[in-house]
Design a protein that fits this description.
Blueprint (H helix, E strand, L loop, with lengths): L3 E4 L1 H14 L8 H12 L4 E4 L9 E9 L1 H4 L6 H15 L5 E4 L9 H9 L3 E2 L1 E2 L12 H4 L7 E4 L5 E4 L5 H14 L3 E5 L3 E2 H7 L1 E2 L1 H17 L4 H9 L2 E16 L2 E10 L7 E7 L1 E7 L2 E5 L3 E6 L16 E7 L8 H7 L20
Parallel strand pairs: 2-5, 3-4
Antiparallel strand pairs: 1-2, 3-9, 3-10, 6-11, 7-8, 7-9, 12-13, 12-18, 13-14, 14-15, 15-16, 17-18
């Protein structure tokens, strides 16, 4: 792959589809962000995608995301100006222009946010993120696993509120402070995380995640055009595993402390007829239980897909009667290390049990 290439208009659709799947139920629905990005492309904007290993060690990279409960994002459409706002705040603070922007998470709508800012500001996007999926907080990022500095960071909302957090004790305090602010703002904020050097991105980023999302989307779109099974195509390409096929029979969902929490209950269909599956989530799917027994947990990627189209179903879009297929995709290897598991396994979310992988060969 070349060191730099322009992401094409066609690939924007692939990116949105693939990132929605990698979002494991969270990251926000990419639909409105995709429309906004396509509008910028229609005006002539183009976004270069660069490889992390081409960054100079002293390059300054902006890490971009929106924060909040996914269900709130359904009511507030993507706005490139708001996405830019914390980026400009951070550049003003350092009196230096970012050399590139990157994704905080490849999940859902947050895959689109850096592209909106990059299209408006004329910057490249790095083919990397900090999760290889979506997670609820910055404590679950690869940069947190690497014990990199978590400050300063910038937050802005849709009104005229801006906050620059100059110091915080650690990544947990980073999350606590930011979460309190965004709850006051209506459970949605736009953020530019602590700037990263090129060296830090090379050492601790989850590389190739943008390309991975694009290739997942391409595989699904191609399968549908050929009238083939899109889920089978995805599982083959990503070495994934199908866990359960059924329909949604109940959803308990509540927004608390800036997160969307709840449980989804499925009744089996086809080969799973007569069986039951439950999915627990905090923005993202964290635990899957098959007939009451834990079958899979974070950091494995637990994804819920429409059984016909293969499109992802976010935690905020689960509805009674939906026919869905639960699949698992392998976790980035960093999160399977002892330090990585401390940040991403069930214990990191308050559960009292250890990581259960859908992939028996997953090394720790």
């Amino acid at each position: 792959m070349s060191a730099e290439r322009v992401v094409t208009l066609e690939e924007l659709d692939f990116l949105a589809t693939g990132a929605w799947i990698l979002g494991t139920g969270g990251g926000g629905d990419p639909y409105h962000g995709l429309l906004a990005l396509k509008a910028l492309y229609a005006e002539g904007a183009r976004v270069p995608l660069i490889q992390a290993d081409t960054l100079a060690d002293d390059a300054m990279v902006g890490v971009i995301s929106q924060m909040g409960a996914p269900v709130v994002n359904l009511e507030r459409t993507a706005d490139p100006a708001m996405t830019m706002k914390p980026v400009v705040m951070m550049e003003r603070h350092f009196n230096r222009r970012f050399d590139a922007l990157m994704l905080s998470e490849i999940g859902g709508g947050n895959s689109i946010q850096p592209f909106l800012a990059a299209a408006k500001l004329g910057r490249p996007v790095v083919d990397a993120d900090t999760m290889g999926r979506a997670f609820p907080s910055v404590f679950h990022t690869s940069f947190a696993v690497g014990d990199l500095q978590s400050y300063p960071y910038a937050l802005a909302d849709i009104r005229d509120n801006e906050v620059m957090v100059m110091r915080c004790e650690n990544w947990l305090w980073n999350e606590r402070i930011a979460r309190k602010i965004l709850v006051e703002w209506g459970s949605r904020a736009f953020s530019c995380k602590a700037p990263r050097t090129g060296r830090e991105v090379k050492d601790w980023g989850i590389h190739g995640s943008v390309t991975q999302a694009i290739e997942i989307g391409r595989a699904l779109h191609t399968a549908r055009l050929r009238h083939e099974d899109p889920i089978a195509a995805l599982l083959t390409q990503q070495n994934g595993r199908a866990l359960f096929r059924g329909k949604v029979i109940d959803v308990e969902r509540r927004t608390t402390a800036g997160h969307l929490r709840g449980v989804c209950q499925l009744e089996g269909l086809d080969d799973n007829r007569g069986e039951h599956y439950s999915l627990e989530f905090q923005n993202e799917f964290l635990v899957g239980r098959h007939d009451g027994a834990i079958e899979v947990t974070t950091p494995d990627l637990i994804c819920v897909l429409d059984s016909v189209s293969g499109e992802a179903v976010g935690t905020e879009r689960l509805r009674y009667g939906q026919r869905v297929t639960v699949i698992a995709l392998p976790s980035p290897k960093l999160f399977l290390t002892p330090k990585g598991l401390a940040h991403t396994a069930p214990v990191a979310f308050g559960y009292d049990f250890d990581f259960v992988s859908a992939f028996p060969a997953a090394g720790i």
